[in-house]
Design brief:
Chain lengths: 134, 312
């Protein structure tokens, strides 16, 4: 059986808007990936723990509340602490352009704002997963 | 590889998670690891959950995780969801209802896609159970795909099978039908605060068979979203485990389970042997042609291939 790409799609923080996350999850599913969707209001600790148990190849975070500068880097740090810094993390949502370089410096491998095409996102996860060291 | 097994035995979640993926992808090293892990498995109480989609299996399991953690048990969960037959992709969403537990070091939850395997389970499910046992879990709960009427494989593999139903999910005739409603060691009517719960309970009590060796499957009511009735389910699960060990039924079930696994492995190995090599592939193509052109029927061709396989 061929290696399947497994992706965790999670919503850290308190906003209750998960349509975007669900659209992404569905696009990745339709691209043949196994998508673990963990629902709303996850703490960064929940997300890092789930990513490890699920042995995912990449994590996609969605946040529309404006707390992305706190929550996204926190997930990256927690993965590092747990010896799982090889799992690439991407984030999306309402992200002001000036935050993008800061998030990249904080260790996010991809940052996707409004208007990003689904093809670009699928391509990102395919590349991120194939580049992950086993 | 041995180091991966050693890490699992030390309780390293990351190693266990990696090994389960390797089993799912059928990587050759996974077989060696399973060989090494086998003698460390077989210690946990394996409980299967089945029932229609939306009955509340995931929610009930999340409550049971808490109940059993309070009793000092280490709990593993494998939650199976379906793979798309068209794209091979899957959305695995059972964790949505289990988030509270995911940070507990003595809980391990894994989502798993069926990858085309029928019966509401994945091919890798029970090898993953062995990994969780080696990791130190002493109770493992397996949630099947929201099952219809005949996904009964779980009952052949688990020690205890819980059938989760909900009110108003069918009339008396649905309940009389054979299949899923015959396999429970425990029946749970979830969402018992809704209309129709009493009717569901009494209908179930009418049709469920008396199991062998003196176990009468109880019918319990829960409102899992509020935690109501969950303690009773946990108590009955423990009672059933005691019944299995005291009555000798456990040994009988272990034997039946070993036979199911051996038959499965034999079928898989025979198929591999007869079809894997390039020469066999060519033969297979010719054999398929003969079936398509009505020169020979499927069973005759299969017999011929088996004979040819034996000779080579």
């Amino acid at each position: 059986m061929a290696k399947k790409i497994r992706v965790l799609i999670a919503k850290p923080g308190l906003d209750g808007h998960d349509r975007g996350a669900k659209v992404i999850a569905r696009a990745l599913r339709d691209a043949g990936m196994e998508v673990i969707y963990t629902g709303l209001r996850q703490s960064p600790e929940d997300i890092a723990a789930a990513a490890i148990e699920e042995d995912v190849d990449a994590i996609g975070l969605s946040c529309l509340s404006g707390a992305h500068m706190t929550l996204f880097p926190r997930v990256v740090q927690l993965l590092k602490k747990k010896g799982a810094s090889d799992i690439p993390v991407a984030g999306g949502g309402i992200i002001p352009p000036e935050d993008v370089p800061k998030l990249k410096r904080a260790g996010l491998k991809g940052v996707f704002g409004p208007g990003t095409s689904l093809q670009d996102i699928v391509a990102f996860f395919e590349t991120a997963a194939s580049g992950r060291a086993k | 590889m041995t180091s991966l097994v050693a890490r699992v035995l030390e309780g390293d979640k990351r190693a266990a998670a990696r090994l389960i993926s390797m089993i799912e992808d059928d990587e050759p090293e996974a077989r060696n690891a399973l060989r090494a892990i086998y003698r460390h498995s077989g210690k946990a109480h394996l409980v299967g959950f089945t029932g229609p989609p939306g009955a509340g299996k995931s929610t009930l399991i999340s409550r049971l995780i808490k109940a059993f953690r309070a009793r000092g048990r280490k709990v593993g969960v494998i939650a199976v969801d379906p793979t798309s037959p068209f794209t091979g992709g899957a959305i695995l969403g059972d964790r949505v209802r289990m988030t509270d537990a995911s940070r507990d070091p003595n809980v391990f939850i894994r989502s798993m896609a069926t990858r085309g395997h029928p019966g509401g389970l994945a091919l890798a499910t029970f090898d993953a159970v062995k990994v969780l046992e080696a990791l130190g879990m002493d109770l493992v709960m397996v949630e099947t795909v929201g099952a219809g009427q005949s996904e009964v494989e779980i009952a052949k593999r688990a020690h205890t099978t819980v059938v989760v139903e909900m009110p108003a999910s069918g009339d008396e005739v649905q309940i009389l039908k054979a299949g899923i409603l015959e396999i429970g060691d425990l029946y749970v009517v979830n969402k018992a605060d809704l209309d129709g719960a009493d009717a569901m309970v009494s209908n179930l009590e009418l049709v469920i068979p008396e199991h062998s060796k003196g176990w009468r499957p109880p019918v319990l009511r829960t409102v899992a979203s509020e935690g109501t009735g969950v303690t009773d389910v946990a108590d009955e699960l423990e009672k059933h485990w005691k019944h299995l060990t005291a009555s000798g039924e456990l040994a009988a079930r272990e034997r039946a389970r070993a036979e199911t696994e051996l038959r499965g492995a034999l079928a898989e190995a025979a198929l591999q042997r007869l079809t894997a090599r390039p020469a066999s592939q060519a033969n297979l193509g010719k054999a398929i042609d003969r079936i398509v052109h009505r020169q020979s029927d499927v069973r005759t061709v299969a017999e011929e291939l088996l004979k040819a396989g034996k000779a080579s």
